[in-house]
């Protein structure tokens, strides 16, 4: 099997002139990199904020709009449905027409959709608005992560990509806490609570204006001189040398399922699915589950668990360039499984024991889930990086939806204990898949990391 480096069509070299400076010598490049990380993190914060607020306002909007059970389900699922379609579409467009235009259009959709929620009068309007916003969320994953990966140096790439998951969870947690306060303490209208995402959307939209196009994408489209100009302006010398391996190639979803990249696609889809399915199930219904297990203040317990998740993501961000990807992918998934098995078998023992088990699960799950913001941007090549991220995003939403909608029925029909054992089994599947397929991309250049899966797998 040939590697990507053996099929280069046109070598890319740095233009003659003085040698490029390192980030220590040129802090301007580092300022750009951190600003880019910030504006992409801003999109992730908004993603989490939008998804985190709907559950708390559902009772109020159900009464106000006189929703049937069908409409409750549709509105609750609207953003997840949108993500399912928006990820692949946004990723394909980012690969086809460029990261830069989609980077701004995506936030414009966030902004318009957020503001439109202030004026909702009927159920179908809210469903349509949140469906479109969900498509923007899915697209944001498939646009922002490739863009950041393509600008980042190998020594920082994992940390900066992991920071995106931190931002997502902070947005989710803040929406959860703020929504609870506004609905209970000041009895704010649900439209105001949902529409609050307008504020961060406007700020991030303005910050994204003027972001340059990815030099790797430009070179992959044959625009070599333009790409090298951007690279010399914003990137380190080592990354510019790595771009010599870029080649001009058409965007095609078929490449994700080619013999070279089929394993990478399977790994990313299953790894993401097995991480988010138990998380969404437990996070969405944490108050109900905790109260059914004897924890009296279920809401406070749920907020605690979400806070632990943020701490877990921050820990992963700080450790990823030290311990590597596989160490954060495999052991935490086994720990998550053990914690959920303990909940399933000890459900009637003690509320304190159950809370400790849920805290353990939340922290361990956050460690591995942080990699869902890292691996997708690394293991797919430039010409299908957006499409690869988008497809894996869509597949993961199947798990998120399953965890959200099947859990209540499972708890009612099988009981909490059996339901937690099923969730533990999903974690075991993720751990086994990670053991065999998770690549170690620590310290690799982006072209090395995105070589056909197998080259970077630790033996």
Automatic annotation (TrEMBL):
One of its GO terms (cellular component) is plasma membrane. It holds the Pfam family Sugar_tr. The chain crosses the membrane at residues 32-57, 69-91, 103-121, 127-148, 160-182, 188-207, 264-290, 302-320, 327-347, 353-375, 387-407, 413-438. Its main location: membrane. One of its GO terms (molecular function) is carbohydrate:proton symporter activity. SUPFAM superfamilies: MFS general substrate transporter (SSF103473). Gene3D superfamilies: MFS general substrate transporter like domains. Residues 36-442 form the Major facilitator superfamily (MFS) profile domain. The keyword Transmembrane applies. Keywords: Membrane, Transmembrane, Transmembrane helix. It is found in: Cell membrane. It is a multi-pass membrane protein. It comes from the Bacteria. Belongs to the major facilitator superfamily. Sugar transporter (TC 2.A.1.1) family. This is MFS transporter. It comes from Arthrobacter mobilis.
């Amino acid at each position: 099997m040939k590697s990507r480096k053996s099929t280069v069509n046109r070598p890319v070299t740095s233009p003659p002139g003085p040698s490029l400076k390192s980030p220590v010598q040129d802090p301007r490049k580092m300022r750009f990199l951190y600003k880019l990380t910030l504006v992409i993190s801003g999109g992730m914060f908004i993603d989490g904020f939008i998804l985190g607020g709907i559950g708390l306002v559902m009772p109020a909007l159900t009464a106000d709009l006189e929703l049937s059970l069908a409409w409750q389900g549709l509105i609750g699922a609207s953003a997840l449905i949108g993500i399912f379609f928006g990820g692949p579409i946004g990723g394909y467009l980012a690969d086809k027409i460029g990261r830069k235009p989609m980077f701004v259009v995506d936030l414009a959709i966030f902004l318009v959709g957020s503001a439109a929620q202030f004026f909702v009068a009927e159920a179908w309007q809210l469903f349509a608005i949140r469906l479109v916003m969900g498509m923007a969320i899915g697209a944001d994953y498939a646009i922002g992560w490739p863009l950041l990966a393509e600008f980042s140096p190998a020594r920082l790439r994992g940390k900066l990509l992991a920071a995106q998951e931190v931002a997502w969870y902070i947005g989710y947690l803040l929406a959860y806490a703020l929504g609870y306060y506004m609905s209970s303490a000041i009895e704010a209208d649900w439209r105001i609570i949902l529409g609050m995402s307008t504020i961060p959307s406007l700020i991030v939209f303005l910050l994204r204006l003027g972001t340059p196009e990815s030099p790797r994408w430009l070179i992959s489209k044959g625009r070599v001189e333009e790409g090298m100009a951007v690279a010399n302006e914003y990137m380190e010398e080592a990354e510019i040398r790595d771009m010599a391996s870029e080649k001009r190639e058409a965007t095609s979803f078929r490449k994700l399922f080619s013999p070279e990249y089929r394993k990478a696609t399977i790994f990313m889809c299953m790894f993401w699915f097995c991480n988010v399915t138990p998380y969404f199930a437990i996070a969405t219904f944490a108050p109900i589950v905790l109260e059914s297990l004897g924890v009296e203040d279920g809401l406070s317990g749920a907020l605690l668990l979400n806070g632990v998740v943020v701490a877990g993501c921050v820990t992963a961000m700080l450790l990823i360039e030290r311990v590597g990807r596989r160490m954060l992918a495999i052991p935490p998934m086994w720990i998550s499984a053990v914690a959920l098995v303990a909940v399933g078998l000890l459900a009637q023992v003690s509320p304190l024991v159950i809370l400790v088990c849920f805290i353990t699960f939340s922290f361990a799950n956050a460690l591995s889930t942080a990699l869902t913001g890292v691996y997708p941007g690394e293991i797919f090549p430039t010409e299908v990086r957006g499409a690869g991220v988008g497809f894996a995003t869509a597949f993961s939403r199947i798990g998120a939806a399953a965890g959200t909608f099947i859990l209540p029925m499972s708890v009612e029909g099988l009981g909490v204990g059996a339901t937690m054992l099923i969730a533990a089994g999903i974690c075991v599947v993720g751990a086994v898949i990670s053991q065999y397929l998770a690549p170690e991309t620590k310290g690799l250049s982006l072209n090395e990391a995105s070589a056909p899966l197998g080259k970077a797998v630790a033996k």
